[in-house]
Design goal:
The protein is mostly helical and about 100 residues long. It has a single domain, classed as ACP-like (Non-ribosomal Peptide Synthetase Peptidyl Carrier Protein, Chain A). Helix 1 packs across helix 3. About 20% of the residues are buried.
């Protein structure tokens, strides 16, 4: 597996991934775009987003940590699962 992404890289890569895989052509999202508004993310797509987050950050998200409010925007996902204060300089997620 590749090195886990740091906070800012995770935000940028996740925006790109969502844009390529889930957003209709011509729609632009940002780190603060509400993902569940207007159906960008639904109950099925959130499973793909969780899998992406786990892979990108090299973590396992337990069922207890899966809450809709943690996935409301890319920035919220990053703050919840890859807070900048817990990222080491070499890109590893701190334990």
């Amino acid at each position: 597996m590749n090195q886990p992404m740091n906070h800012e890289t995770f935000i940028a890569e996740t925006i790109g991934w969502i844009s390529r895989t889930m957003v209709p052509p011509g729609v632009t999202i940002s780190a603060d775009t509400p993902l569940f508004a207007n159906g960008l993310i639904n109950s099925i797509r959130v499973l793909r987003l969780i899998a992406w987050t786990e892979h990108a950050l090299g973590i396992r998200i337990t069922d207890a940590r899966i809450r809709m409010d943690y996935f409301r925007s890319v920035r919220q996902i990053a703050c919840t699962f890859a807070p900048a204060s817990t990222i080491k300089g070499d890109g590893d997620v701190a334990a």
